[in-house]
Amino acid sequence: MIVPSWSAPLLAALPLLGGANAAAAKRADCNSALTFSGATYSLGVDSAAQTPYAVINAPGSSATTVPLPVPTSSKATIVDHAETGTAAAPSSTAAANGVNNAAAGGSAAPATTTGSGANAGSGSAPASSGVVNAAASGSAAATPSVCAGNTATTRDQWCDYDINTDYYNEVPDTGVVREYWLELLDMTLAPDGIPRVVQTVNGTIPGPMIEANWGDTVVVHVTNNLNNSLNGTSIHWHGLRQSFNNQNDGVSSITQCPTPPGQSYTYTWRAEQYGSTWYHSHFALQTWEGIYGPLVVHGPATANYDEDLGFMMLSDWGHRTVDEQHDYANTQGAPVLDTGLINGMNTWTSNTTNQTVGKRFETNVVAGKTYRLRLVNTAINTMFKFMIDNHNVTVIANDLVPIKPFEADIVPIHIGQRYDIIFTANQDSTASDFWMRAIPQVACSPVKNAKDIKAILHYGNSTKTPTTTGYNYTDECTDFPMTDLVPYVPMNAQSGVTLRDAATIAKNSDGYYKWSLNSTTMVVEWDNPTLMSVYNNETNFTQSNAVIELPQANQWVILVVDSTLPLPHPMHLHGHDFMVLAQGVGTYNSSIPLEMTNPPRRDVAIMPASGYLVFAFETDNPGAWLMHCHIGWVSSNTAQTFSRTTQLTNRQHAIQGFALQILERYDEIRPLIDEDQLEGNCQNWDSFDQVHDLVQTNDSGI
Q1: Which of 78, 228, 507, 592 has its CA 20 to 30 A from that of 577?
Q2: Does residue 40 fall inside a structural domain?
Q3: How far apart are alpha carbons 89 and 641 in whole angstroms?
């Protein structure tokens, strides 16, 4: 069969519209009727306009004709109902788990399009998204073997692997390539009902979900159309180790030059880990203007559950852009933001008119079933405690590491961290509707609307507003106890070289706050990323590059980060899962015992206020890897500034520079670099820079 050139969006749309198997849709004749999940889809072409459409016949409903977009280039797209507030999501009702299974994986996409679509008061959200699954577009590298993944009663299984598989050394070879297209846009949206300038991925906040199976290869084409703000960009795949693949880590000034407006950059990586994470910009403050989204890799789990409810992405939010508040943050300290969002949604009640605008995220459950939720803290400055009123949860993973399940009422989650939790819908005798709360911890940072960052859990078809009460909690900035976070696949730390970094802060001569690690505030250059220096065999790095060189392979490194300042910091290391050996208040000294036997493993952990964090990793991954605090005001992600109108400027501002880079196994990095991609993107940036005369003033570059 010859498939028409416009068929890619049609075939990609069907699995999302009806939970259909993408591969089956691809095999079908474009004029035939397909039946999936009880609905029949008839595909056709308007003979006059020569445009594709789908006719959907669902049980109990009249036929609906859905026009499908015709791509103007070779990239495929999917239908996205963001403008109507209806998420184009895979089915969440399937018992089986895995992208390739006929029920679309049993993993519900988050209400990313729901949130932004419902809140797009300016009507600026586009009607089509740029995500495509390779199984629908025909770009799979090979024909994978049929694998159902797992079912509600066999979550610990995964094809020929299981939860006991050492995923650091063994990864399924699926032969599948999943391809996505992301477009970054300057827009005006109203996530909580209050319109403001934002930056989006495919027109929504959060952006669309990137989804794969354990072992798949993922290709993501990112087009920078931030033409109003004139911002460069890069996209980081948070928590993915990128084994021997440093160039695809997506960090401006480290692994690449920023991609300028009007240009695209393609990232390719293999899903060697499984679980819940996110992608976000690693340039300027773009993450907290809206450039982020969920990322899931399906695989085994340490506990059974019936259905996957998808992501709960927690964020703080201001009615003025974070760039507008950047000068204040650098001269006065972190500003107090107005509110928070759950999956890009919330309400706002005016203090003067008492009028409420916006909409909350809502989800429905069936009494007696058990559900999985994927929590992500995407905030710029806020630690949350998450709870579901009247429900206990079981924690089954931290970051991308499966752990031995333990029960909790409340989940503390700092910036960049992720927790996978399951809960049973067993409170139908108590109420039909319950609040799901994300409560900012004032001990970390206050938020004005702190008591009203909520979503709603409905039993059955109820649509009532909850009247339930949350759990009592202690306001604090701490992780779960280390003894709770026990990795399911055990690994021990080993002694090795010890590095110590003391964190301090002071104002520079311009009056800007600058963080330092060992008296060094990190500064790297947009137009000369570290990988370019490595490719050119340069070995002399300045002190401000904040480079720690670790040339020896498979050496254990113990890093101590401590501070006398009363401020907690979520520390994130790229390229590795690290082992948390010690964590506490006070000054670290050698008399403090280190947990070397199967300690917690993750990629973000808290250095407590006036305290220390000790963690270890093995030099098993050549590359230039960033380590930084994930608080946006103090870390690497600060730069170009929103004006106080609806435009962005290219004026550069100060950064507080709480970061360093680990140059691991220098001699092995150069052969891993794609020179054409690295040099080509930097040439694009240089050309853009020459036209717009950008100046990197007091900015770390990342």
Answers
A1: 592
A2: no
A3: 34
Q: Are 139 and 216 in contact (CB under 8 A)?
A: no
Task: Kindly state the average pLDDT of the residues 624-641.
Answer: 67
Cβ-in-10-Å burial (0-12, 13-18, 19+) of 63 comes to exposed
| 649 in the same domain as 502 | yes
> What is the number of alpha carbons within 13 Å of residue 435 lying toward its C-beta?
17
d(CA 257, CA 678): 8
**Alpha carbons within 13 A on the beta-carbon side of 296:** 32
- Please count the other Cβ atoms lying within 10 Å of the Cβ belonging to residue 671: 8
Separation in Å, CA 130 to CA 76, 183, 230:
7, 7, 22
Distance CA 83, CA 660 (A): 42
* CA 315 to centroid of chain Cα atoms: 11
**404 neighbors 341 (Cβ within 8 angstroms):** no
Q: What is the CATH number of the domain that holds 371?
A: 2.60.40.420
Tens digit of each residue's pLDDT (9 = 90 or more) over 111-170: 333 333 333 332 222 222 333 333 333 333 334 445 678 999 999 999 899 999 999 999
Considering the domain architecture, whether residues 444 and 528 belong to the same structural domain is answered as: no
Both tokens of 50, joined, read 């020569």
Residue 428 lies in a domain: yes
Cis before 600? omega within 30: no
Q: 278 and 393: one domain?
A: no
Percentage with pLDDT > 70 across the chain: 70
Report d(CA 485, CA 473) in Å as an integer: 20
Of the chain, the percentage scoring pLDDT greater than 90 comes to 59
The domain total for the chain is 3
Taking alpha carbons only, the member of 131, 133, 130, 155 closest to residue 144 is 133
H or E element, residue 476: none
Side chain identity, residue 529: P
Instruction: Give the integer Cα–Cα distance in Å for 321 and 327.
Output: 12
List the domain range (segments joined by +) for residue 386. Answer: 332-484
Q: Are residues 166 and 225 in the same domain?
A: yes
Give a yes or no: residue 343 inside a domain: yes
Compute the distance between CA of residue 155 and CA of residue 306 in angstroms, rounded to an integer. 9
Q: How far is CA 684 from CA 258, 269, 362, in A?
A: 9, 23, 43
Q: Are the beta carbons of 462 and 366 closer than 8 angstroms?
A: no
Q: Which residues contact 512 (CB under 8 A, 6 or more apart)?
A: 330, 331, 654, 656, 698
The radius of gyration computed from the CA coordinates of the chain, to the nearest angstrom, equals: 24
Q: Give me the half-sphere count of Cα atoms (radius 13 Å) on the Cβ side of residue 629.
A: 33
In single-letter form, the type of residue at position 481 comes to P
* Domain-located, residue 42: no
The two structure tokens encoding residue 486: 């026990």
Q: What is the pTM for the complete model shown?
A: 0.79
pLDDT, tens only, 442-497: 998 999 999 999 999 999 999 999 999 999 999 999 999 999 999 999 999 998 87
**Among 230, 307, 263, CA closest to 649:** 230
Which tokens in the block code for residue 121?
């008061």
Q: Are residues 293 and 339 in the same domain?
A: no
Q: Which strand (E) or helix (H) includes residue 238?
A: none
Strands 556-562 and 569-573: unpaired
How far apart are the C-alpha atoms of 542 and 120, rounded to whole Å? 46
Amino acid in the structure at residue 365? V
Residues 617 and 639 grouped into a single domain? yes
CA atoms within 13 A on the CB side of 424: 5
Selection from 652, 631, 628, 648 nearest residue 640 by Cα: 652
Give the position of tokens 């930056």. Answer: 199
Judgement on whether residues 418 and 512 belong to the same structural domain of the protein: no
Question: How many Å apart are CA 99 and CA 149, to the nearest integer?
Answer: 8
